[in-house]
Each structure stands twice: as structure tokens, then as C-alpha cells.
Write a structure and sequence with these properties.
With 131 residues, this protein is mainly alpha-helical. It has a single domain, classed as Orthogonal Bundle (Arc Repressor Mutant, subunit A). The protein is built from 7 helices and 3 strands, in the order αααβααββαα. A 3-stranded antiparallel β-sheet has the order 1-3-2. The protein starts with a helix and ends with a helix. The mean pLDDT is 89. This is Transcriptional regulator. Pfam families: HxlR. InterPro entries: HTH_HxlR, WH-like_DNA-bd_sf, WH_DNA-bd_sf. GO terms for molecular function: DNA binding.
Length: 131
């Protein structure tokens, strides 16, 4: 029996759970896509924007700033007219690539099962509400 079962106290907390802290960093739907766009090296803002379907300039800017603040992405400014700005993953950001690639592969291998489960669930529970 676990300590939490004996004391009836929660043993999982958003405040201290390392997993939840990581999810906080990458949970925005655009974050993973931005990291994937940058995973092969330095890339200019406009190229990131072209690579990610549906992302607005505002959302891309916000995502890049958040990742820069978290130490995942670094911005390089080359003085020129106009200034050339490139983004790349930091060493810390590069350590995220392996688990994120594994998640991406999990999605490729298993998302069809998630969709099938959803369809089965909806069929089962929507059928009951139609009676």
C-alpha cells in the first residue's frame, strides 16, 4: 500500500511533478511544430513560418519568445540591412529532440488506434443518448 493510500493524501501534484513541468514547456500545440522546424539547424523566421501550416506571425513570435525564455531556442541576429535573424536549438533544446521524436513516432504508430477508440466510444455513448 502506498503512503498516499494510507493517508488519503494526493501523491501527484502539478506543483512538484517533473513530468507536468516538462508538459508545461511543450504543451502548446505550436511548440512541438516549431521545435521540429528548427531541429536540423539554424533557420530564418520566414522559413519557419513557411514550414508550419496555419501558424500566424503572432503565434510564431510568441512561441519563439517562450522557447527562447525557457532556454530551448536561441536567436542569432546578423547585423545587416535589414537585420538577418535566425533561430536554432540550444544544447538544452537539442536534448528534447529524442523524446519528442519518440512521441512523434508513437503518434505515427498509434494515432489510428486512438481514432478508432474515439469512434467506438462515440458510437457506444451516442447510441445510448439517441434511444
Amino acid at each position: 500500500m502506498t503512503a498516499s493510500a494510507k493517508t488519503k493524501q494526493p501523491d501527484i501534484s502539478l506543483a512538484v511533478c517533473g513530468y507536468s513541468k516538462v508538459i508545461e514547456i511543450i504543451s502548446n500545440k505550436w511548440t512541438a511544430l516549431v521545435i521540429y522546424a528548427i531541429e536540423n539547424g539554424s533557420i530564418r523566421y520566414g522559413e519557419i513560418e513557411r514550414r508550419i501550416a496555419g501558424i500566424s506571425k503572432k503565434m510564431l513570435t510568441q512561441t519563439l519568445r517562450k522557447l527562447e525564455r525557457d532556454g530551448i531556442v536561441q536567436r542569432h541576429i546578423t547585423p545587416s540591412v535589414p537585420p538577418m535573424v535566425e533561430y536554432s536549438l540550444t544544447l538544452l533544446g537539442q536534448t528534447l529532440l529524442r523524446p519528442m521524436r519518440e512521441l512523434r513516432q508513437w503518434g505515427r504508430d498509434n494515432y489510428m488506434h486512438v481514432e478508432a477508440a474515439r469512434m467506438q466510444y462515440d458510437f457506444t455513448y451516442n447510441k445510448d443518448s439517441m434511444d
